[in-house]
Amino acid sequence: MEKKRKVTVFLNDEKVPFGVFEPPAKIVLDTTKIPDGKHELKIKAISSMGIEGVRIIPFEVRNGPEISVVGLKENEVIESNTSIIVNAYGSETTESFIIKGSETPKAVPSWVWACIIMFVAFAIFYFITHWNIGTYKSFF
User: Fold this and answer.
1) What is the pLDDT of residues 82-109, one digit of tens each?
2) SS3 59
3) Are strands 66-70 and 19-21 parallel, antiparallel or unpaired?
4) Which residues does residue 41 pair with via DSSP β-bridges, in sequence order?
C-alpha cells in the first residue's frame, strides 16, 4: 500500500509547521505578519514511497521603509564633521507617485565627468587640427 505524499512547511526553527499540504501546493506567505530580518523556510516532503526530502530556503523580509544613507558607508573611517543624508521611503501610501527629481540626491560619478572631459578635449583637438577654410566651399 502506498503512503500519501505530503509537504510540510516550517518557518524558521518553529516546531509547529506553517502548514501541511498535498503536492502540488500553492502557498501564500504573508510577510506582513513576519518581522523584518532574515528568516528560513524549511520544506519537508515525503514521497509516495515514504522517502523524505528537506529543502531550506533562506530569505529576508523587508516590509518597512527603504532607508538610504549618502555620506557614510559601512565600516568607513571618518574624521571631523561629516555630512550625512538619510532618506526613508516606502510604498504604504495610496497616492500616485510622480517623479519630480531624485529621491536621494547623489553626485555624478567621476567616470562620467572623465568621459565628458575627454570627449570635449577630442572635439577641440579635432577642430583645431582639421580646420581649413578652403575645404568648406559653398555650392552656390
Assistant:
1) 888 887 776 655 556 555 555 556 677 8
2) strand
3) unpaired
4) 11, 57
CA distances from 136 to 122, 124, 127 (A): 21, 18, 13
Interatomic CA distance for residues 15 and 12, integer angstroms = 9
Beta strands in the chain (DSSP E): 6-11, 19-21, 37-46, 52-61, 66-70, 85-89
pTM over 0.85: no
Q: Which of 32, 48, 135 is nearest to 92 (CA)?
A: 32
Q: Measured between alpha carbons, how far is 35 from 37 in angstroms, rounded to an integer?
A: 6
CA distances from 105 to 67, 84, 117, 137 (A): 13, 11, 23, 49
d(CA 50, CA 44): 12
Cell of 14: 518553529
> Quick check: bond before 105 cis, omega within 30?
no
